UniProtKB/TrEMBL annotation, chains A, B:
<keyword id="KW-0472">Membrane</keyword>
<dbReference type="InterPro" id="IPR000415">
    <property type="entry name" value="Nitroreductase-like"/>
</dbReference>
<keyword id="KW-0812">Transmembrane</keyword>
<dbReference type="Pfam" id="PF00881">
    <property type="entry name" value="Nitroreductase"/>
</dbReference>
<dbReference type="GO" id="GO:0010181">
    <property type="term" value="F:FMN binding"/>
</dbReference>
<feature type="transmembrane region" description="Helical">
    <location>
        <begin position="12"/>
        <end position="33"/>
    </location>
</feature>
<keyword id="KW-0560">Oxidoreductase</keyword>
<protein>
    <recommendedName>
        <fullName>Nitroreductase domain-containing protein</fullName>
    </recommendedName>
</protein>
<feature type="transmembrane region" description="Helical">
    <location>
        <begin position="209"/>
        <end position="231"/>
    </location>
</feature>
<dbReference type="GO" id="GO:0140616">
    <property type="term" value="F:iodotyrosine deiodinase activity"/>
</dbReference>
<dbReference type="GO" id="GO:0006570">
    <property type="term" value="P:tyrosine metabolic process"/>
</dbReference>
<dbReference type="InterPro" id="IPR050627">
    <property type="entry name" value="Nitroreductase/BluB"/>
</dbReference>
<keyword id="KW-0288">FMN</keyword>
<dbReference type="GO" id="GO:1905516">
    <property type="term" value="P:positive regulation of fertilization"/>
</dbReference>
<keyword id="KW-1133">Transmembrane helix</keyword>
<dbReference type="InterPro" id="IPR029479">
    <property type="entry name" value="Nitroreductase"/>
</dbReference>
<feature type="domain" description="Nitroreductase">
    <location>
        <begin position="91"/>
        <end position="261"/>
    </location>
</feature>
């Protein structure tokens, strides 16, 4: 009996050992899962940006040259009443889906618009954008095929029913005729990182915000030029379109614009914009 | 001896049991850590957006009213040579850090600029933005204190040394004098979701891209008005600034702009912009 009791207590001790092993396993597994790349001290954070590895060197060099600063020379403006005049210009912009296929704006107009977009500010002046201008019919056809294929899945499977419902007043579906009708498509890629001449990766801080701001300037430029456009962000089409346009892996599609003159019978949704009091708060 | 052997083999068996317990623990822990909210089938995806819960109802209603579409009426433009003229307007824009504190632009100018920004396109016309315009000195002082406190930590601890080095040619540090000197600060918040009159959450598709595009239009408007600005994205300051300005929890700070007229002795970094051939590709 005494021996049996001993074995009994020894059993409990052995189960305690199992428990201990289990606990050690638990915490070590938890540790490794929480830190998949074993980077327990992620010291350098950047909101909303992917963290890229930058090679450490003994002496860090800035991406830009260090030069003395220059006196600021103010540019031109639209005075008098520049703000009001500019508001009247952009308030006439609407997203349209019916373009005139026969009226092709001169490429130099598109180029000036992209020059304007390229004046956008960017994190540490990295200018992390590429504007792909597509005029070629076959390329436009391929883009349309990629987008329609993905959009069919988006509308039927990937998008929440509420989302599809919210789009109903805009009368959109997965058929994107404008992609082959519009004389130009502009695909705006954000560069998630850059490459130095010596092949080292350069960080592109806030590349998505910077490139979107450039997109906003582009829209104003197109409006100033008398051109209409449609801003789209085709869900899940980025990789296929990047491959089609042979863009490098550091570039990711952000915005796809259709650009041209509106068709004669072009219609737009009956939308109102929010009043100033709904979008501005004064302190 | 035979009894001892039996106990020995029983020990091994018991260790096998521990191993089994450990393995079971491993996979169940891994499962729960990988699926913290136990949502294994995330069906509706939206690139780069936080997934918000939308209440399911029997009949889904669109956020916008369903109305017949209207004929498109083209707005004004800057013709002749609209694109070129617009490029000349925005190419004079530079980010400046020295503002004239005594020259305060009329609030109506700022209002027109924000009206212009509010014409930006947005996913399903959700208009997911709020522009907080700060003229009050005490509020500006509080903003500066929050930003400088965070920026000191950003520069010394959070930012990668390469990032700090990349900013050296811009001669920036954690001291942000312009935040109290500039006559206006504009804090642009993105609304990550909206609220219906009945309190239900409305999805705000692509709110970050939409709000950044609005920011780009705002920059053009300010330039058209003859005003200078500085775009910043203060790292980690969002929650404190949101609390200071008493903005609701669905709003997140995206951009902080300082706005005003440049100081007499204002200097800017000696920067060049990329040539068109470096940012545009033709297909």
């Amino acid at each position: 009996m005494e021996v049996e009791t001993l074995i009994g207590s020894s059993k409990i001790l052995k189960y305690w050992a199992s428990l201990l092993i289990g606990l050690v396993l638990f915490f070590s597994i938890k540790y490794f899962i929480k830190n998949p790349k074993r980077k327990p001290q992620k010291k350098y954070t950047l909101d909303n940006e992917e963290d890229i590895e930058v090679e450490e060197t003994d002496e860090l060099q800035p991406a830009l040259e260090e030069k003395p600063h220059l006196p600021f020379v103010a540019g031109i403006n639209l005075n008098p009443n520049g703000a009001e005049r500019f508001y009247r210009l952009v308030q006439g912009r609407r997203s349209i889906r019916s373009f005139r296929s026969q009226s092709i704006p001169d490429l130099s107009i598109i180029e000036d618009c992209i020059r304007a977009a390229g004046t956008a500010p960017s994190g540490a002046h990295t200018e992390p954008w590429t504007f792909c201008v597509v005029e070629n019919s076959e390329v436009k056809q391929s883009i349309r095929e990629i987008v329609e294929q993905e959009e069919l899945m988006n509308y039927s499977q990937r998008m929440h029913p509420q989302w599809v419902t919210d789009l109903r007043p805009l009368q959109t579906n997965h058929i994107k005729e404008y992609l082959t009708v519009a004389p130009y498509l502009i695909l705006i890629f954000k560069q998630t990182y850059g490459l130095s001449p010596d092949g080292r990766r350069k960080r592109h801080y806030y590349n998505e915000i910077s490139t979107s701001i450039a997109g906003g300037i582009l829209l104003c430029a197109l409006q100033a030029a008398g051109l209409a456009s449609l801003v789209t962000t085709p869900l899940n089409c980025g990789p296929a379109l990047r491959t089609l346009l042979q863009r490098p892996v550091n570039e990711k599609l952000l915005i796809l614009l259709a650009v041209g003159y509106p068709a004669e019978d072009c219609k737009v949704p009956d939308l109102q914009r929010k009043e100033l009091s709904k979008i501005m708060v004064k302190y």
